């Protein structure tokens, strides 16, 4: 805060009212507003530099222009009660360039919750069919395992919904079971989905969709998400593990340095089996489409090596880029290895 002669030429904000009780608010009615007018009682102009709420449910709108001495402005607070039943008290901090720099405003009240309905119990909608969850998350699953998860489906429409297994799109490693082939309006059925890991020709993190065919007029093909982390089960006996293949990398990182946008970027990693048994290279992948990995040798014999080429597409990329390649093998000690690729890409002239 300024002192001395400069303080006499500054603006000063005064809020006649700094707290408002909004009473009972119905959640179903949506957002409510509270307005806090203020006056510049100083000798010079004043600016509201920042207005910040203590919660994301509260959005401030305020006078952004300079407020001359003797003039007025406002801070409007918009409160969203959705999903916030019960008593509430929210603070809004106003920062000015005036002689009193900080002001604290408060709104309070009570949110009356709306009656819960199908959208609360079954929040994921596919046309007229709602789901308790539309994502089957199996977590870690070994290749010799199977696991079953379930969800509840609710008919939110005004006519029955029938399922058609023949037209559904379901991979062979997934087996759905529905308690009935038809759901009446306002009724529910259970869907059980069994994942047979041995039938899935993949490793590591896998994400896919299944599509249940129905006669629903609104979006008849119902999409559900499926994710899993497929792992290999290794022997616990240290003697048995010692007889298996083991992966040795020549390095785990590569930095291309400075590259021009669009310039080809290729590097090669050398993979050696320094174990006593065959080493199976299960999978090499990246979460970015800009990384291409040439096909790996499936098996590396003891004492042998192979090369893995990694191609980084720099087109349309500028600045520092850090990418990862996930390499999965049958090495019992380090089945998952992370290789890091980096580059600083400059815009082509």
Can you give keywords for this protein?
349 residues, mainly beta, five-stranded antiparallel sheet, five-stranded mixed sheet, 2 helices, 3% helix, disordered N terminus
Describe the structure.
With 349 residues, the protein is mainly beta. 3% of the residues lie in helices and 55% in strands. The protein has helices spanning 118-121, 238-242; strands spanning 13-14, 19-26, 32-40, 48-53, 58-62, 72-79, 86-96, 102-112, 124-126, 129-131, 135-142, 146-155, 161-169, 174-178, 182-183, 188-196, 204-214, 221-231, 247-249, 253-260, 265-273, 279-285, 291-293, 299-300, 305-312, 319-329, 336-346. The model is unreliable at 1-6 (pLDDT under 50).
Helix content: under 10%
Number of strands: 27
Q: Record the strand order, biggest sheet.
A: 9-10-12-16-14
Shape: flat
How much is the average pLDDT?
94
- Rg calc: 31 Å
State the low-pLDDT regions, or none: 1-6
H-E string: EEEEEEEEHEEEEEEEEEEHEEEEEEEEE
Structural class: mainly beta
Report the sheet-strand fraction. Answer: over 45%
Largest sheet, if any? 5 strands, antiparallel
Helical region count?
2
Oligomer state equals single chain
The rounded distance between the terminal residues' Cα atoms is 50 Å
Concise synopsis of the structure shown:
With 349 residues, this protein is mainly β. It has helices at 118-121, 238-242; strands at residues 13-14, 19-26, 32-40, 48-53, 58-62, 72-79, 86-96, 102-112, 124-126, 129-131, 135-142, 146-155, 161-169, 174-178, 182-183, 188-196, 204-214, 221-231, 247-249, 253-260, 265-273, 279-285, 291-293, 299-300, 305-312, 319-329, 336-346.
